[in-house]
Model the fold of this input.
Amino acid sequence: MRKSSRGGTALDRARPLDHQKAHEIQAFGHLIRRPIALPERAARQSVENLNQALADTITLRDLYKKHHWQLAGPTFYLLHLLFDKHYEEQNELVDALAERIQSLGGVTLAMAADVAETTIIPRPPRGREEVPVQISRLLHAHEIVLKEARTMARQAAESGDDGTNDLLVSDVIRTNEKQVWFVSEHLVDVPLVRAD
Ligand SMILES: [Fe+2]
Done:
């Protein structure tokens, strides 16, 4: 067989170099400096906060999908669609938070096991629950995210990290507040057909 210029046969060059292993290039929790005119202390604090917000947002996102699948009752179709819409919006927040962490020179949390160890949202049971319980769980999770996002946004503003402050206020806080409105109205006990 013909030899290639880099040694081995020409066919060897077409072979995928799979099963490769090496050390990590950046350990979780370590920061690299990027030329973004932000003090390292501010970037470090934001990365830590954003990873907590990321873990909780991934958990809230997945809670929406769980409830989208496991729904029961006469509001099935309505809530099936609404929960999926909120899932998609939370998914966008997940990506925005993760990409902000990388922009600041940090390392994102990513995998389910790491998220489960980090989130402060209570773990739901595997089984199905009634709609009012599903909604109560969602509202509690939203409130956890909103409370931490407000604190983190203030810290980012104080440390001069305007980009993180803007992401938390304009995207995380506003999106979560609006979703709370839409979801919480389903727990208002008004008559469906005949007024009281
Ligand atoms: Fe679906």
